[in-house]
Amino acid sequence: MMEEFEGCSLTILIFGVGYPKNCIKKCDDCENTNCKAKIRREISNKIEEQGHIVQFLEDFDLPVPAIDEKFFIKKREVDLVFILPESQGSQFEFSNFMEDSEIAPKLRIFVERKYHPLDSNIEDKSLLSNGYLVFLTQYGHVYSYNDTKELFRKVLVLCESFAHVKIYKNL
């Protein structure tokens, strides 16, 4: 039975803070451990170590990203879409994708614990917080984390679990 699990490769997109143009080539050597772009790259590296394919849509230079991203996700064999909504662009992508019935089930949203709708101030009425709560209610895939170690662990557990589910569905 374990042989079936070894061959399952997922295709995963990661949205989040983009790379500053002046350091995209130096990210691996960068000393800034709080750099959100570097954290995103480290997540990618850890997922790829599990044998999965990770892509960043900004690498594809899409002409009209707001439209083309949806088309890309729908037409390509994308298994999961991880969003770390820490920039205006990734927050827009979350709000753009959460209402799309073909894309929303693929989304996995990771937010710092202080912004998670079940862990933060219930009185927070921001549009983004309400979006997290609505998405959590509909799809259940809004995950909180305290630090990068916890974020990495949760991402890898979800990848492994999803790969197993994918195999079982294809048996």
What portion of the residues fall into strands of 2 or more residues?
A: 5-15%
| Rounded mean pLDDT score | 84
Taking Cα atoms only, what radius of gyration do you get, to the nearest Å? Answer: 16 Å
CATH topology: Rossmann fold
Give the domain tally: 1
Largest sheet: spatial strand order: 2-1-3-4-5
- List the uncertain runs: none
Which superfamily, in CATH terms, is the homologous superfamily?
A: Response regulator
Topology summary:
Blueprint: H1 2-6, E1 11-15, H2 36-49, E2 53-55, H3 65-75, E3 80-83, H4 88-97, E4 107-112, H5 127-139, E5 142-145, H6 148-170
Parallel strand pairs: 1-2, 1-3, 3-4, 4-5
Helix pairs in contact: 2-6
Task: State the main characteristics.
alpha/beta, 5-stranded parallel beta sheet, Rossmann fold, 171 residues
